[in-house]
Amino acid sequence: MPMTFQVQFQNPYQKLSVKELLEDKLLIPRKIRYFLRTKKHVLINNQPINWQSSVEHGDDVTLIFDDDDYPAKTILFGDKQLVQPVYEDEHFIIVNKPEGMKTHANQPNELALLNHVSAYAGQTCYVVHRLDKETSGLVLFAKNPFILPILNRMLEKKAIKRYYWALVDGKTLPKTITYKDKIGRHRHDRRKRIVDNKHGQTAITHLKRLKTYPKNQLVECQLDTGRTHQIRVHLSYNEHPIIGDPLYHPHPKGRLMLHAYKLTLTHPMTGQQLSFQAKSDSFEQKLNTQA
């Protein structure tokens, strides 16, 4: 069976076993660890190893994957000119999504940001997290199926942090506040979500008031969870609907004033601390009219 791809990196951690590296540090799923071990597809400094072998800091690690490890997946390529890259390496890519563009397509022939990013990268990419169509900002994509579950587990463990700017209506907010209202599906409108503290899913949003305007406020939102429409629902439920929200603001005007401006994580393959920020011209233009 032909090889599909290899992953190579220098071990960024202190001395540990191969098992600890793959299981505890890289968070590789059990099924894939089994394949790597039985096929002897882990090399340390280009040498085959025992599963309990030690890996020193700085050792060259090579992981080899077959087609049956990760079946090939193809995607319809979009327009690479529509991509605003912020960071890219062999493992993942972070881009700045404009408002009005879906993160991924819902129909086979539909083109969305994922299709455009795949065209830009010249290969099939994978969504790690999504933004609503109306929201702009930073989105993370995996560039191979090996790194995808690692990034997904980092997201679950809150090792990937996402920060948003939102321009909201309503009375003056405290300097900081945390919303913990549970979120569930709207029973009569499948597009919407509602606060449902009895049957909903846990949702935690941390807010910081950044600036107060004559009629509105700019807030920073940081997520502990990633429920659909989480920020939009929490703010509207607590009487601070986001300006321009077509679903949750009683009088929406202009674009949804929600922008994912910052994303931070520790690179799982290098241990490097990474932090990225991106602006939105349309968000800034609307903000400048508030003074």
How would you sum up this structure, described in words?
The protein contains six helices and 18 strands. It is of the alpha+beta class and 291 residues long. Strands 7, 8, 9, 10, 11, 12, 15, 16, 17 and 18 form a ten-stranded mixed sheet that branches. A four-stranded antiparallel sheet has the order 1-6-3-4, with no helix packed on it. The chain is elongated and about 65 Å long.
Task: Please summarize what this structure is.
This protein has three domains: 64 residues, Structural Genomics Hypothetical 15.5 Kd Protein In mrcA-pckA Intergenic Region, Chain A, CATH 3.10.290; 102 residues, Pseudouridine synthase (2-Layer Sandwich); 100 residues, Pseudouridine synthase (2-Layer Sandwich), CATH 3.30.2350.
CATH domain class of the largest domain: Alpha Beta
Structural class: alpha+beta
Secondary structure tally, helices: 6
What's the average pLDDT? 92
CATH superfamily of the largest domain: Pseudouridine synthase
Order of helices and strands: EEHHEEEEEEHEEHEEEEEEHEEH
Strand content: 25-35%
General shape: elongated
- The share of residues in helices is 10-25%
Radius of gyration over all CA atoms, rounded: 21 Å
State the end-to-end distance.
Answer: 63 Å
The number of distinct β-strands equals 18
Query: What number of domains?
Result: 3
Q: From the structure provided, what is the oligomeric state, counting identical versus distinct chains?
A: single chain
Uncertain segments are: none
CATH structural architecture of the largest domain: 2-Layer Sandwich
CATH fold node name of the largest domain: Pseudouridine synthase
Biggest sheet character: 10 strands, mixed
Domain Pseudouridine synthase RsuA/RluA-like: 91-236
Family: Belongs to the pseudouridine synthase RluA family.
EC number: 5.4.99.-
GO biological process, one term: enzyme-directed rRNA pseudouridine synthesis
